[in-house]
Amino acid sequence: MTKVLIAEDDDAIRSFLTEGFIGEGYIVATANNGAEALEQCAAFLPDVVVLDLMMPIVNGFEFLERRGEQCAAPVICVSAAYHASQLPQGRGVVAFVAKPFDFRVLVLAVASAHNGSRAPEAAEADS
């Protein structure tokens, strides 16, 4: 079974995503901020990370900088404030999904990331 780490500081969104991914058959761990996400990467060893970019303590951009070898999982970034063109290159980001998002698009992006392919539908979901 695929393990997904959801790094999201909004309680309602985090709960929605957790319930949704569990309902789709995924094993889920969560983090309230980027610092917790770094800890969860080492302990949980996710297959895919769903990463909010705007979080307290350690934001999504800092997470991408600091994750190093402890978390080599592909990353799907989600944000209402940023655009895909603002993401750093070469940090393991395989897709960007703008908030508010369609959960089915995010599930497709996670499945594609886990299978090692890019998800063009998810990458373009912000248009």
Number of domains: 1
Helix content percent band:
25-40%
- Strand tally, please? 5
- The level 1 CATH classification is Alpha Beta
Question: Which architecture would the CATH scheme give at its second level?
Answer: 3-Layer(aba) Sandwich
Q: Which parts are unreliable, with pLDDT below 50 for 5 consecutive residues or more? A: 118-127
Question: What does this protein look like?
Answer:
By secondary structure, the chain is of the alpha/beta class. The chain has one domain (3-123): Response regulator (Rossmann fold, 3-Layer(aba) Sandwich), CATH 3.40.50.2300. It has five helices and five strands, in the order βαβαβαββαα. It has helices at residues 11-23, 34-44, 60-66, 103-114, 120-123, and strands at 3-7, 27-31, 48-52, 75-79, 93-98. A five-stranded parallel β-sheet has the order 2-1-3-4-5, with helices on both faces. β3 (48-52), α3 and β4 (75-79) form a beta-alpha-beta unit. α2 (34-44) crosses α3.
